[in-house]
Amino acid sequence: MGAVLSEQSAQPEYRIEDLAHHSGATVRTIRAYQDRGLLPRPERRGRSNVYGDAHLARLRQIADLLDRGYTLASIKELLEAWDTGRGLGGVLGLVAEVHGPWTDEEADRISRAELDARFGGTPDEDAIREAVELGVLERLPDREAEEYLVPSPQELAVAVELYAAGVPLPAITGHLRELRDQVEHIASRFLEFTTEHVFARYLEHRPPTDADAAEAATMVRRLRPLAQQTVDAELARAMRLLATRHLQLHLSPDAPPTKDDEPRAVALPVGTIRAVQNLVGAEGVAAFIMAATERELHKRTLDTLAATGKIPD
Predict the structure, then answer these.
(1) Residue whose C-alpha is closest to residue 109's, from 74, 70, 153
(2) For 17-62, what is each residue's pLDDT tens digit?
(3) Residues 257, 223: one domain?
(4) Which of 3, 105, 122, 141 is the least crowded, having the fewest Cβ atoms under 10 Å away?
(5) Cα within 13 Å of Cα(46), Cβ side
(6) Looking at the domain assignment, is residue 38 inside a domain?
(7) Mapping DSSP to helix (H, G, I), strand (E, B) and coil, where does residue 96 land?
(8) Do 198 and 139 fall within a single domain?
(9) Could you give the CA distance from residue 73 to residue 79 in angstroms, rounded to a whole number?
(10) How many CB atoms lie within 10 A of CB 88?
């Protein structure tokens, strides 16, 4: 199945079946695009409809924009702008910028044997299935059940450390689902905020002009790291604040009893509590223990850096 060269123009010509084969679209889809005005009508030659390279290029444009999340209605607007001479260069550049990488992290691969070894050495098909569903792992068509793609090695490494610390796999995946919902909400709010205050002026025209689209793409490059930087800073602040409160609560000698499903207070020796009370008074016990804990953690960090030769100047 292939294109036929026209004797008059020496340009490839396709029957609809050939066009479907080369474009990856079905015959039914091609006809539907014609009916919706997304694809120009073919040339009628005798009793046959003839398509050319322009039709093939248009089908590939449509497929690319669909993959990027555009609706058929918005694609029609873009293509009409193209046909009226307004060009799609800037718009497609903006689309490419938005769909570019939002992290410097690079995907990796992991064998099934290594994956099992990292999580206790016993194969767990339910855990694998859930990891694939969450996108933590992706199946490789040519390496089915032997090797997996890991889109975020950092995320997998966190799961490995939590499992090693005694957290069951169902609890890890459940926490990830909950966390993902909350992070997607944060991302949505950031996009709403930047659209209202930054990008609205570039989107006044539909589709935007080449100049506006190019400027918006530049702005995306500038703002891309800001979302992660802001979340990192605020998460660090919140963890420092809440972890301190949490530790003070559970180190306090008069900490209330906990339920079976809650973290239990750390039981310090009675003699230690009494010695601290004699030194700082009963009301200062929790703060003193917290300060001593922070000092010990700081000392251990410095010891580790000294042992690895990584003490900063």
Answers:
(1) 153
(2) 999 988 889 999 999 999 888 898 888 888 888 998 889 888 988 8
(3) no
(4) 141
(5) 2
(6) yes
(7) helix
(8) yes
(9) 10
(10) 17
Complete DSSP assignment for 249-286 = HHHSTTPPP--TTSPPPP---HHHHHHHHHHH-GGGHH
Digit-coded pLDDT (tens) for 158-214 = 999 999 999 999 999 999 999 999 998 988 888 888 888 877 777 666 666 777 777
Q: Does residue 42 sit within a domain?
A: yes
CB under 8 Å, gap of 24 or more: what pairs does 207-211 form? 207/77, 207/78, 207/81, 207/86, 207/88, 207/91, 208/90, 208/91, 208/94, 209/86, 209/90, 210/86, 210/87, 210/89, 210/90, 210/91, 211/90
Same domain flag for 70 and 126 = no
Are 201 and 264 found together in one domain? no
Q: How far apart are the first and last CA of the chain?
A: 69
Give the CA distances from residue 154 to residues 127, 163, 170, 219, in Å, rounded to whole numbers and listed in that order.
18, 14, 19, 28
- Cβ of 108: how many Cβ atoms within 10 Å? 12
Do residues 226 and 258 both lie within one domain?
no
Q: How many structural domains comprise the chain?
A: 3
Whether pTM exceeds 0.85: no
